[in-house]
């Protein structure tokens, strides 16, 4: 379980590296680069994010959502509660948090997409393993085929703005980010159409495929068995890193999200790099002193919802006119460093918080809504529990 928390924390880091570029400027959302940052170092930072981060960590986060879905079902059984009504309330709570997140903080929210797609997962949660696997593969294959067909037969120029129009739109929207509360909320609401389109065409289907695979992995207790299978972990990396990094490089060279063919390459190869990242991290977390890495990442993943929202709060404060007003003023390399710096801060705060509270603030509210009663807060024992925390810090599962 602690490996899952650590992997979820790792996924949050990768997601923030990508999201901060959208929080800092409207140019990425309009599929153009800010002409104010056109140096080789700026291009290198964009290239690194596209090749090594884009799509990869969203897939991991989605996979772990499906994995945790099974843990939720088991928790409901232990509490002698009906799972479906409980999960429906949890999903509704997640959706409401996501709506508030979109309107107030960040228009690139994923919580609403997860909540809607979770309804499909809930309807399928009793299917056999083979059905879950085949459905996941079929969904993912459909996404790839649709992207390839679009790249070959559909001219994006017929329904996309020209490069000049996109630059103009991006400049105007970046200025809105520097405005007051009404301007910022209006910009978030104006972006809902694109958010829904992305959710329906790409993010939603790929999330469902990963949910199903994660559910299957949890049924098989994947992360309990992986540390004891070093040969499998090694082979995942031998295959995953070359294919995944190679695909990421091609994706970046072809223009990343500006090119449908590039997106198709990214969707095909991203799971390989995601799997390689997971295999490498699992190995590190079970190797001598490096096992401390699990203790660093696990608290962040334990309160993942709080930290996901906290990342948006930080972006809001840094870049909008209500905060420091840095939108459009921070270069890609500095954004990359900022993402890692903010995450390091979340590591410290998460560990401190869980030393005093049982749940993160957002998890506390969601649990209250899910169970329709106030959770037992707990204090001073860390979310892992006193004995468990000592065991983990001693390097034990």
TrEMBL record:
This is DUF418 domain-containing protein. The keyword Hydrolase does not apply. Keywords: Membrane, Transmembrane, Transmembrane helix. It holds the Pfam family DUF418. Residues 217-372 form the DUF418 domain. It comes from the Bacteria. It comes from Pseudonocardia autotrophica. The chain crosses the membrane at residues 7-27, 47-71, 92-125, 131-154, 191-214, 235-254, 260-284, 305-328, 334-354. The keyword Cell membrane does not apply.
